[in-house]
Amino acid sequence: MTKKRFVSATMAAIFAASLVAGCGNGGGNNSSTTTAAKKSDGKVLNIYCWNDEFKQRYEKYYKNTPSDVKVNWVITPNDNNGYQNALDAALKKQDSAPADEKIDIFLIEADYALKYTDTEYALDVKNDIGLTDDDLKDQYSYTKEIVTSTDGKLKGVTWQATPGLFAYRRSIAKDVLGTDDPTEVQKALADWNKFNDVAKQASAKGYKMLSGYDDSYRTFSNNVSKPWVDAKTSKIQIDDNLMKWVDQTKTFTDEGYNNKTSLWSDGWNADQGSKGKVFGFFYSTWGINFTLLGNSLDKKEADGGKAEVGNGIFGDYAVCQGPQPYYWGGTWICAAKGTDNVDLVKDIMKTLTCDKTTMKQITTDTQDYTNTTSGMNEIANSDFKSDFLGGQNHIKLFAEVAPKINMKNMSSYDQGLNEEFQKAFKDYFDGKVTKDQALENFYKAALEKYPNLKK
Amino acid sequence: MKKQKKLVSYAKWGYIFLIPFFTVFIIFNLIPLVSTFYNSFFENYEIGLIQVGPTPVGLENFKTIFTDGDLGKYFTNTMIMWALGFVPQMFFSLLLAVWFTNSRLRLKGTSFFKTVIYMPNLIMASAFAMLFFALFSDIGPVNNILARLGIGQYRFLAEVAGTRGLVAFMNFLMWTGNTTIILMSGIMGIDESLFEAARIDGASSWRIFWGITMPLLRPITAYVLITSLIGGLQMFDVPQILTNGGGSPDRTSMTLIMYLNKHLYSHNYGMAGALSVILFVVTGILSMIVYTYTMNNYDGSGSLSKKARAKRKAEKKQMREQKKESKAAQATSSQHA
Question: Which residues contact B147 (CB under 8 A, 6 or more apart)?
Fold first, then answer.
């Protein structure tokens, strides 16, 4: 009796399993035919992203969506790695998913770009999608370096470039340096030695040079001479430039040149407002027009305040290049393997990231800095000015910095290792551990995240 | 014979009513438990989108944890933060439970206070931690008050004592109400006539507490201690959010489960499994120690074991003598009057 029941149960299980397996194979076959044929007959365009920034750009500036194609936005917030977890899970099912549920487009950020561009899940923009070198020639080269796979294929495109600058308080610069002119201030901050000297002068007058520990991190980490991980031995390599950041920040902390805050903390945000006594902040394109502007207002825009001179310290900031070129942020568009909308994806990429007219329009509408060298140079040489920066044409400075950014030394471990490096050394700056112990803690956290790496 | 046939067996209903529990237990407890043991013998993780393993590696994961891990450190952290919260929690819970149930005190508005002290437990632990994170930040209200009082800034979350203290304080606030309610129900389960008799005999509140309440409350205190200990070993959300997952400073507020959570990033089933198995064993051993220690002279339902009975006898004798003395004293005092 029991034996019989067991046999029938096993039979049922095998039958069910074969059904499932059959489905899997079927899906697989479908997908391979669609990729081979490269037909854009999909009726649903699935886009994976973490906020509605791209959605806004898409809906406002892309007008050629075929009327019978439904755009399906799958938005998963970034918190706790949520977006990447959701995207990873979806990509792994890509082969077996029905055509209309396959991801067509997914967005990525620079810090973890190689995690996706080094896999087959992201399609080659030139060979698979069909954009030409001529289409892409106006884009800043660093925006292409970031999404180029290790074997040299371009796997993504972006509509924005995010070069960074040093935004300083005009009133404090006048007090410390005797001038608030961006060219003069830039001369005083042209390299790290000069920067440290100004920090000392500012401190003598009761100001802080920077707000927190991580403020200058990106200017160092973007200018490393080797990638985080050695490709052959999987060994973690700590670049000298990162140790320079450690030493500088330790000095700044011990001498009282910074306010011991952390990026995005309440203290850090408060330091950017009228009560702050901080000389300046390292910020990129979006940070200046969005975050810094918001923090500078005494009466926030949500409370009915206006972004105009007289509200808080609106107009008291100015920008200069700072000691080293760097970038911060940015969003790249990738086409997913198995997409059934190749032609549409190509047209979206072309319109939003290669078309100068569209991108210039985005810049004038939203002050977003877009990925068109010639277009940005045109704006740089026009009479464009920002009231928030006291009438300065910051696009001009961005246009000078952007071509200098070099992102050849990237690795797929950048996001995880940068985060852990900053975290581990916070204890050192706080005086809780020695430098060696902080380094030890960093290795520990790094190996927890990436068990395949070696110390 | 006929009569026997008519007898209905109710025994099967017992088993039928147990089915839902066992189904849920097997699906959500037993299967995950067994698969955890199974997973702990494999190398199995992901680097980005690349899957490594699963390859059977025997006891390699356990070896790694014991040789390069800081398991002892995290265990100590967890226990320190638990004890810092549990000791005051037990003190206040006992005090409040005794007061609330005391038929002589007849406190007014006890249900109001019971609700109030239970409140913190209703807030999600993560929300509670976020609140404290904002309150005790470097420029938060608490530091503002300290500055106004002339004490100066104290960077709570950059100091070992500050961070551990806050975690313990939050656990204390969150669980005192809960423990009070449990202890109260335990005290109310004790026969009221025992208290009355003791009071008539002239025993002080202190004496009643140690002589009647505490010994008869032992199964409940053992229960509270064990559940709190297990809960303490699994401490996670409060320190995780307060320190943003880092267990800062210098990993001194990193609990065992926070360490386990570190393996989530790489989906490291092998290491996480091995760690969970170790935790399972540790929890089991600790619970057993606590149980045998607190229950060793208690054999259930209010009756006492041999050893305790002997002790009790001695105590009773002492009480009787005391009573005699007090009677004598009363007699003399009344004579004086």
Answer: B153
**Exposure string (b/e) for B116-137, b if CB count within 10 Å is 16 or more?**
ebeebbeeebeebbeebbeebb
Closest CB to A91 among B49, B266, B268: B49
Say whether B246 and A423 touch across the interface (CB within 8 A): yes
Tell me the pLDDT tens digit for each residue of B35-61.
Answer: 999 999 998 888 877 788 788 888 888
CA-nearest residue to A80 within chain B is: B265
Domains of chain B are 42-316 (1.10.3720.10)
- Of B139, B155, B268, nearest to A451 by CB-CB distance is B268
A211 membership: H or E segment, kind and range: strand A210-212
CB spacing of A416 vs B139 below 8 angstroms: no
Pairing of strands A105-109, A44-49: parallel
Which domains are seen in chain A, by residue range? 38-161+329-379 (3.40.190.10), 164-325+383-449 (3.40.190.10)
Identify all chain B residues contacting A260, using CB atoms and an 8 Å cutoff. 138, 155, 158
The DSSP H or E segment spanning A320 is strand A317-320
A-B Cβ pairs (cutoff 8 Å, strict): 72
d(CA A100, CA A43): 7
Quick check: A430 and B140 CB within 8 A?
Answer: no
Residue B47 Cα, gap to closest chain A Cα (Å): 7
Question: Which tokens go with B101?
Answer: 């149930």
- Tell me the shortest Cα–Cα distance from A424 to chain B, in angstroms: 8
End-to-end CA distance of chain A: 60
Query: pLDDT (tens digit, 9 = 90+) per residue, B221-274?
Result: 988 998 899 899 989 999 999 988 888 888 889 999 999 998 888 888 989 999
Position B310 confidence tier, pLDDT thresholds 50, 70, 90: low
Name the average pLDDT for chain B. Answer: 84
**Is the bond leading into A77 cis (omega within 30 degrees of zero)?**
no
> pLDDT at position B337, please?
39
Q: Which residues of chain A have pLDDT under 50?
A: 1-2, 11, 15-39
Q: Of B120, B119, B235, which Cα lies nearest the Cα of B167?
A: B235
- Three-state SS for A166-195 is EEEEHHHHHHHHCCCCHHHHHHHCCCHHHH
Q: Are B278 and B286 in contact (CB under 8 A)?
A: no
Query: Which ipTM score applies to this complex?
Result: 0.77
Residues B57-79 have pLDDT tens digits of 888 889 888 887 788 899 999 99
Both tokens assigned to B64: 């790694």
In the predicted model, is pLDDT for residue B179 greater than 70?
yes
| Phi, psi of B287, rounded to the nearest 5 degrees | -60, -40
Residues of chain B found within 8 Å of residue A441, distances taken between Cβ atoms: 250-251
Q: How far apart are the C-alpha atoms of B75 and B154, rounded to whole Å?
A: 27
pLDDT in tens, B281-306: 998 998 888 888 777 666 554 444 55
Answer whether residue B194 shows pLDDT above 50.
Answer: yes
